[in-house]
Amino acid sequence: MTETTLFGFDGSTFVRTVRCVLARKSISYNQVPVNVLEGETQEPEHLERHPFGKVPVLDIDGMRLRETDAIVRYLEARDPEPPMFPKDAKERAKADENAALITNYGYDAIIGFVAYHLFPDVVGGKNEEMRQSNLDQARKLIRLILENKKDAPFFSGDAPGFADYLLGPLIAYATMTEDGAAILSLDGMQDWWDRLSNDEAFVATAPDLG
């Protein structure tokens, strides 16, 4: 059997998303750390894997996959149980919408205010106006996906799935800052976070931040 290899370091939220899905589906793999913060994604060896210098990259079944969405959807097609998406068409559409909203609008907003607190030098210093703008955008995003979630326990339906594993690593960083409370205070968000925080795959993939 061809070896499965994941390229990317544990501190990356997108890498953690893929690790969560691999863990839930009991797919064994080797991991090669590629540290974004240390510039390793821009080294020639990694640029051969991903010309845009991003992680994760997954080598699986004799092919190379780039980008979290493509990786997770292949893993779902390859190993459909446990599912990362609802089976009902309408529920799946909303779960897909949640995943797209998180990727397109949530990532930059949440990492934006997280960076203000945890690694301001990486983003050019502390900009209070930018911090507040990012926090406002993050809260707008959370309100919308909570609305989509309705009464379901998770953003992907009855069990944690792709959307939850996209958002969870971001919220984990948010809770390390004083702005995390502004996110968790939104109606229903703390309950979701408590449930995800007890999910076996999510717990098992927590990064060692030293």
TrEMBL record:
Residues 88-210 form the GST C-terminal domain. GO terms for molecular function: transferase activity. InterPro entries: Glutathione-S-Trfase_C-like, Glutathione-S-Trfase_C_sf, Glutathione_S-Trfase, Glutathione_S-Trfase_N, GST_C, GST_Omega/HSP26, Thioredoxin-like_sf. The keyword Transferase applies. Residues 2-83 form the GST N-terminal domain. Signal peptide: none annotated. Pfam families: GST_C (PF00043), GST_N (PF02798). The keyword Transferase applies. Keywords: Transferase. Gene3D superfamilies: 1.20.1050.10, Glutaredoxin. GO terms for cellular component: cytoplasm. Coiled coil: none annotated. Belongs to the GST superfamily. PANTHER family: GLUTATHIONE S-TRANSFERASE OMEGA, PTHR43968. This is Glutathione S-transferase. It comes from Pseudosulfitobacter pseudonitzschiae.
